[in-house]
From TrEMBL:
Name of this protein: Pentapeptide repeat-containing protein
Top-level taxonomic group: Bacteria
Protein source organism: Arthrobacter echini
Source species taxonomy: Bacteria, Bacillati, Actinomycetota, Actinomycetes, Micrococcales
Alphabetized InterPro entries for the sequence: 5peptide_repeat, Pentapeptide-BTB/POZ_domain
Pfam families from the UniProt entry: Pentapeptide
Signal peptide per UniProt: none
Length: 222
């Protein structure tokens, strides 16, 4: 393998594998603080339940609704989500590790003070994703439509947004390293100083140029 060019943006380090030999659970009774492993939940409604501190490891969740479910401090390890539905997702201080999410539909996702490690979010529509003060490492987003992605005060390392459409990207106080924004579009970006450590393509740079010039107090005259 040829050496990586000096200064090239590092891609997220992902090697996700789907959970194997999971047991289908028809009517699970999940409680806050539970530790469940190797289970498959399908077409399950967990709306409004108190599941703070729950741990799911090597589990598959397919067509599960978590609207207004209390998931504060929850841990998802080596899990796979398909069609996760939550107009209101309450998962502050949660942990997501080596997990794949496909076709996610979130309204307001309260994920502040959380940790995302080796996570792939593929497709889906998310209105507001609050990752304030979170640690996001080796995360890939592909083909997502996001109304607002709030990374205020977050630490993001080896994160890539590919073919995503984002309304507002908020980066006030963010610390970015190897964050790849190429191929994605943004209507507006708040906290331009937080872009340090990000990679953009030539078209994105042209779009950003007037805002960067204004930030630096440059006058542009033809």
């Amino acid at each position: 393998m040829p050496p990586r060019p000096r200064g090239a943006t590092q891609a997220p380090r992902l090697s996700l594998q789907p959970p194997q030999n999971v047991a289908v659970i028809m009517e699970p009774h999940l409680l806050d603080g539970d530790n469940r492993e190797g289970e498959h939940y399908e077409r399950l409604a967990l709306d409004g339940q108190e599941l703070a501190g729950i741990t799911l490891q090597e589990c598959v969740l397919e067509g599960v609704s978590m609207n207004d479910t209390e998931l504060r401090g929850a841990r998802f390890i080596e899990c796979a989500f398909e069609d996760l539905f939550a107009p209101v997702l309450r998962a502050s201080r949660s942990s997501w590790r080596e997990t794949f999410l496909h076709s996610t539909r979130w309204g307001s996702a309260e994920l502040y003070d959380s940790r995302f490690d080796r996570v792939h979010l593929d497709g889906g529509k998310l209105d507001y994703v609050n990752l304030r003060s979170s640690r996001v490492t080796d995360v890939l987003l592909t083909g997502c439509i996001i109304g607002e992605l709030d990374l205020t005060g977050a630490k993001a390392t080896r994160v890539a947004l590919r073919d995503c459409t984002v309304g507002t990207l908020t980066l006030d106080g963010a610390q970015l390293a190897d964050v790849d924004l190429r191929t994605s579009s943004f209507r507006s970006i708040n906290g331009l100083d937080g872009l340090r450590g990000a990679t953009v393509d030539e078209y994105q740079l042209q779009v950003l140029a007037p805002y960067l010039a204004e930030r630096m107090g440059l006058r542009i005259e033809g």
